[in-house]
Amino acid sequence: MIYTIDLRFQHFYNPSGRIQLLGLFWFWTKEHCFTQGWKQEYPSTFEVHTVDMAMRCCCLLVLLVALGVCEASRSQEWAHHGASMFADLTPREMRNVRDYLQGKPELGLTAARGKDLKKNSILLMELHLPRKHEALRALDRGQAKPTRQARVVVQFGNQAQPNITEFIVSPLPFPTSYTGKTFKGDRPIRFESRPITVAEYSHIIDILQKITAKVHKVLFETTGGFSFHNCTDRCLTFSDIAPRGLESGERRTWIMLQKFVEGYFIHPVGFEVLVNHKDLDPERWTVEKVWYNGQYFDNVEELAERYEKGTLEKVQLPDHDDEDLYSTYIPRGHSNTRTDIHGPKLVEPQGPRYHVDGNFVEYAGWSFAFRVRSSAGLQIFDLRFNGERIAYEVSLQEAIAFYSGDTPAAMQTKYIDAGWAMGTVDYELAPGIDCPEIATFLDLHHYYDTDKPMRYKNALCVFEMTTGMPLRRHFNSNFQGGYNFFGGLENHVLVLRTTSTVYNYDYIWDFLFYQNGVMESRVSATGYIHATFFTPNGLHYGSKVYNYVLGNLHTHLIHYKVDLDIAGRENSFESMDLKYVNFTNPWSHKHSVVQSKLIKTQHQTERSAAFRFGKKFPRYVHFYNPNEKNKWGHQKGYRIQYNSHANSVLPRGWREENGISWSRYPLAVTRHKDSEPTSSSIYTQNDPWEPVVSFEDYIRNNENITNQDLVAWVTVGFLHVPHSEDIPNTATPGNAVGFFLRPFNFFDEDPSLSSRSTVIVRPDKEGKPKVQRWTPEVVGHCVTDKPFFYNGTYAGV
């Protein structure tokens, strides 16, 4: 009997917009047996001539293949299905949560933008993430997604004991309940630790008006005609410094004045004032100290009086406008680049090869969900390659910049940027500058210190780019003027990008996805340096970058959470180093061999996997699944490779260092806990002395980390000693740090072998180059109309 298995295919679009093939196969005997459908990546038709037993085996084989294909497809569908669990709150959800809470009379909420500080109002609203095990039910089993919830920070200022309270509001989009949220150890949130708001800034401006009115003559003569009090032209502005005090419970801020011109950050005028603004009645705010041109005064009146008497050292800044141009972007100097033509641009000859659906992205085997957390910034979830999860979460946690200097503002500056709602300052990206013109631009929405959702247009972009460097290549010479073959693969990567402009600095946040299963996390620093007034002693703490301007040295540290799930949740961690070994040469006994030997160290507890700055760091840090092996018997794993020259910023346990205890470690490995979601908080900036989130607590119990769900906490960064080339701005080259997630025996071979962008050239029998490729011969008129050509010969001339 002849049995025919006939596979017929038709194109269709699935909900994610990807073209797939729907296969239908029929089995015929004397009667029609059954019909079954499944998704298949390629067409095929074949016949089987066999007996009944062979037919049954064939049917089983086909079913097994179909089940494997179905499983991979189902995995991607579940990933797509679950991505919305991690999507940021929509404007509709934000408004509904606001209306719900404001409708609760027991909370007594009023508008956030009202100038009164004695009020109850919403400070921050963002997505509250589901518990990991609940999210995995949807991602790995296709079960119902957990209820969406909002995290809401409320400042209760209109009561006898003002406090900050966090609530979890659910379900979304139509909330019906709210419950209190606490931090690990039930640490209370001090009211003084709250981030500063627009309302509080308005009162700071008011008190500065009063202060500067008393020293108007001092400032006017010092700056060459600039003023703060009742100013309409040639005005002064200010920068406020944090943390706001020297111990927990304080709210005292050093404020320095600057010329209000483009790039005012590098126009200090030599006047700084310490304001105590702890009281919720601004009329009770006080001036505690004044600094002018290297001299301290107990109050503003003392400065004014001594200035009039001529008993202090005065300073007069240049008073002509040309001096103010150094901080602008206006071109100056001779250019050797042609200006009548544009530079190279990125193009997509046949359109994009990635797909974005809401917060879900697919590209070259990669898939992930993303969000931009208002309090901290960019995060990705459910990171998969070819359907296998690599990481559950890779997320930015904190960015700090700790400064040194001679002025009080400089020596007090220790910026902890989540305290400035780092995720909300992701402004519009410029096509062709911040991202290529071909990029997909997406809007972001935040609810922070506002009474309605704020839309940030085109604040995130996704694009594919060529690096201008091959991913792999080899020229195989025949050493006779010719070659045996040439092979190469162009290196394309997908980039997910947003920025944070935290006052003077601009951080460019990137996640990059390579074709060979490598993911890179990178931050590039640019923007204006934080500059203070120059004093001779200031040269111990930076460089003079302009007249009366000191660029202060500082260290940037960035902290990431990397929740790895390598071939499952049960992972272990080891480090690898090299050791020289010396032994007798087995084929020449009178000689010795000296070479490196690989030494592996299994880390079984959290303390043993917390590597301190200042100590030797392992050459390789490797996360692996002890229960899963690749084809060659190696445990499937990924390693973290650093691109960083970070170091600690303060001695262990020194005051403000308690709030950034994560900065002690380039790497710390802990067991995953839903109660340890972040390493920092929005309150650390203004109370680093007694932080509500203490990372050290995460490793203090020293739990076992063998065959467990592990989280890697990664610190990268760099020292920046400003120099004259930082005027007007710090440039990105050399100021980018980050890390790579690199497969280490996770695959059986390089997964980029599946890329059809490979080009192979071999000489034919006549010696002419024969090109083998799997993509269109001509790239496209936007790049070149000429087909690929390669000769490969070499000879003397």
Description of the molecule:
- The chain has a 16-stranded antiparallel sheet that branches. Strands 14, 15, 16, 17, 18, 19, 28, 31, 34 and 35 form a ten-stranded antiparallel sheet that branches.
- The radius of gyration is 31 Å and the shape is globular.
- 39% of the residues are buried.
- The chain is mainly β.
- Helices cover 12% and strands 40% of the residues.
- Strand 21 and strand 22 form a beta hairpin.
- The chain contains eight helices and 38 strands.
- Helix 1 packs antiparallel against helix 3.
- One of its GO terms (molecular function) is diamine oxidase activity.
- This is Amine oxidase.
- One of its GO terms (cellular component) is plasma membrane.
- It comes from Coregonus suidteri.
- Keywords: Copper, Metal-binding, Oxidoreductase, TPQ.
